[in-house]
Amino acid sequence: MPYPAKKNTKLIEEVLSRIAQGETLAALGRELDFHPNNWRLWCGEDEQLAIAYAQARDVGADVIAEDALRIIDEEPERVVQIDEDGKKSTSRIDSAGVAWAKNRAELRLKLLAKWNPKKYGSKATVDVGNKDGETLKVDNGVDTVALTLQLAEALRAKGDDK
User: Fold this and answer.
1) Short-list 89, 68, 69, CA closest to 80
2) Which pLDDT tens digit goes with each residue over 82-110?
3) Beta strand pairing status for 88-93 and 78-82?
4) Is the pTM of this model over 0.90?
């Protein structure tokens, strides 16, 4: 039986604690022998568990964000170059290590944006209006035939100028 764990207080406390530390439900399910779908069913049946799980996920998301900052803030490894005599000649930052750290941090931030777009997502908004804070007003009483004729007249006049 691949997922023998049953709902119990010890399991719930362990999962909530580790979710709040930034671990994923899938990884915990594999380690603690329960299926993530069972966890979701338990949350559906128990409102207090669902609330506690949501709070733990929120805290865990902050932990993951802080982890991304830690990854970026760490000084990259240096590659030491040795001269022909076997002595250290120069050292440089390992570009592969920098790229790896960047990818690790970016992936965490992208997952956070998917999991909690309100808090971690980037949303671009465009305000359209006549004045600051005023929404665009559409006048349905416009005579479209007259407007089309005026536009055609203007275009003809523009063509005559050439």
Assistant:
1) 89
2) 877 777 777 888 889 999 999 999 999 99
3) antiparallel
4) no
